[in-house]
């Protein structure tokens, strides 16, 4: 992988062997089997260096980069999908894109800050770590930041609350729940104990009053 004028580049080698033994052999050598797709491509089998691929993944799945296929061409692509097991890459799919054609992708959500409700026994419960959006490749964000520091117990973040860049639209229902601050189990038990003690004290007071009467 290299950077040329701010554009990330990844080199791929053509892959001819498709048998399981050959695939396992590639992985044992630190290579990832992959396929390049596109409107004008039937699917080109390739393999890439695992360490270089890992650096590209860190930039975000919506980030456009140049994939150079040795002996063929250099094309702009995004990471369409990948498979991973036990922190080892198994397979990757690259999608050839057109810079003038809107693209629909899933973008990671970056939750920032500590909810105010955590000081009252609440915990941040995350339902979604990605959201689907659409826009021109140049407009797509690598991540979407969400500040959760003001959330109190019972507050939530819905898809409609996301601040998207100009030209980027949401492709999930606006009411879809992304995260919320809920009461932790420990706090529930503690509150129940306090309420139980209060009820017992109140009951003891009533019994004492009845006896005096």
TrEMBL record:
Alphabetical keyword list: Ribonucleoprotein, Ribosomal protein, RNA-binding, rRNA-binding
Keyword RNA-binding: yes
Lineage, uppermost ranks: Bacteria, Bacillati, Bacillota, Bacilli, Bacillales
Segments of skewed composition (Low complexity): 194-206
Gene3D superfamilies per the UniProt record, alphabetical: Ribosomal protein L25, beta domain, Ribosomal Protein L25, Chain P
Domain Large ribosomal subunit protein bL25 L25: 10-94
Compositionally biased region (Polar residues): 1-14
Task of the protein: This is one of the proteins that binds to the 5S RNA in the ribosome where it forms part of the central protuberance.
Gene behind this protein: rplY
Annotated spans, Disordered: 1-21, 194-213
Transmembrane stretches, start-end: none
SUPFAM superfamilies given in the database record: Ribosomal protein L25-like
Name used for this protein in its record: Large ribosomal subunit protein bL25
């Amino acid at each position: 992988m290299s950077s040329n004028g701010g554009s990330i580049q990844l080199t791929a080698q053509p892959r001819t062997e498709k048998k399981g033994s050959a695939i396992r052999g590639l992985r044992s050598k630190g290579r990832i089997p992959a396929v390049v797709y596109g409107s004008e491509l039937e699917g080109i089998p390739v393999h890439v260096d695992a360490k270089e691929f890992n650096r590209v993944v860190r930039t975000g799945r919506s980030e456009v980069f140049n994939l150079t296929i040795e002996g063929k061409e250099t094309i702009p692509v995004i990471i369409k999908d990948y498979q991973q097991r036990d922190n080892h890459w198994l397979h990757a799919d690259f999608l050839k894109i057109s810079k003038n054609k809107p693209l629909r992708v899933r973008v990671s959500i970056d939750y920032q800050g500590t909810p105010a409700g955590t000081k009252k026994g609440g915990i941040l419960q995350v339902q979604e770590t990605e959201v689907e959006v659409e826009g021109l490749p140049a407009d797509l964000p690598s991540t979407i930041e969400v500040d959760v520091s003001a959330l109190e117990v019972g507050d939530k973040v819905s898809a409609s609350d996301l601040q998207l860049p100009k030209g980027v639209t949401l492709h999930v229902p606006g009411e879809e729940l992304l995260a919320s601050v809920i009461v932790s189990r420990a706090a529930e038990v503690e509150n129940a104990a306090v309420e139980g003690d209060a009820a017992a004290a109140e009951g003891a007071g009533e019994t004492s009053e009845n006896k005096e009467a």
